[in-house]
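Appendix B. One record, verbatim.
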Amino acid sequence: MRKLGKRRGRASAAVEMAVVTPLLLTLLFGIIEYGWTLSVRQSMVSAAREGARVASLPGSSDSDIRSRVQEYLTPMGLTGQVTLQRAVLPDNPTEKVTVTIPYSQVSLLGGYFGSTNFNLASTCSMRKEGAD
């Protein structure tokens, strides 16, 4: 009778493990996915800021801005769409750089946690230097 009790204990432990393991793995992969997304987002913020810094310099071209943004995205293995907006207001000449990356390009798990049909975006604006 005693041996039967040990078998039941092992069987119940196996069932508990089978129930808990998927939950723990989902939690673990969710933490990894969230951390990676935050890292990519920080790189995008830095890339937009550097692009706006280059754009604010006198004589900067669109290709200079795009190459500077790409310098910041390349180490993460990303390629983003860069949108430039130049405001020509005499009292406040600004340069605005927006970096957009589809989440499907960023996601490690490919939609395991839901839809990947949205974009991550970061925008930075800076006043044009040398403008009065």
